[in-house]
Amino acid sequence: MTNIIAAFVTRKLKLSTSIGLISFLLTLGLTAGWQRTQASTSQQLVQATTAQNEPTELKNLLTQIDAASSKGNVKGVLQFYDPNFTNGDGLNRQTLEQSLVSFWQRYPKLRYITKLLSSKSEGNAIIAETQTEITGLPAGNSNNLALNATIKSRQRVVAGKIVRQDILSERTQITSGNKPPQIDIKLPQQVKVGQKYNFDAIVQEPLGDDFLLGTALEEPIQPAKFLNPTPVDLELLTSGGLFKVGQAPSVPGSQWVSAVILRGNGITMVTQRLQVVNK
Known about the structure:
Elements lengths: L1 H9 L1 E3 L6 H18 L3 H7 L5 H16 L4 H5 L2 E7 L5 H14 L2 E14 L2 E13 L8 E13 L2 E17 L5 E4 L3 E3 L3 E8 L8 E9 L10 E3 L1 E3 L3 E7 L5 E11 L2 E12 L2
Parallel strand pairs: 2-6, 8-15
Antiparallel strand pairs: 1-11, 3-4, 4-5, 5-6, 6-15, 7-9, 9-13, 10-12, 10-14, 14-15
Helix pairs in contact: 2-4
């Protein structure tokens, strides 16, 4: 048993997608689906945002969004992005295309359920905030790999093109194996620059005779991280989860904070976005 544990401890997991890439690309699919419909009905949508029947109109629109977003048509997505498209995490139209191709090859089957949180007209633009629940399974799911994500985002659309997107919050969970551990994550949504914070990932089931391996990761959100997988070193855990104290950087921005835990024949990775703001 000692040799088996040692082998696991020294094992490196190279994550199949960069931490945080999942949340960003899933949200991009949402806005692309929205824009596909909005491009042909922009005037009706502008009117709907000020009409009494706004919720009905936009809910009908979001139903079409979910259907279009699940197709994974990269060229169909890109035609609705402005050449000067920007994202709050630093991606542009070119890196968007590269990321979509890579991501949708691995997750070709996605299901979107979107809720409209708010919408308004702003000059010649439409601003919409949404919450999307996404589930997905990859092709050849021999390892029982599953994905679940919840994303809140804000989109700005001008003249039938997406010109700006910002992710407000995100939580993504990837599980693999026959019995992945159930994890309860405790992490604040927002901290001040330089502030210390607690990050706990607690395994919910009794351990019994099982052992746990895991690690916690903190990463600044940068364009290069979306395409470069993150190598992960797992360590033997002596308690029922991960209990870490982190410290926010000295400049405002966004961080990905992740927990990776392996138990028996299952592994779970959970990533959440942490906003770092000025004092």
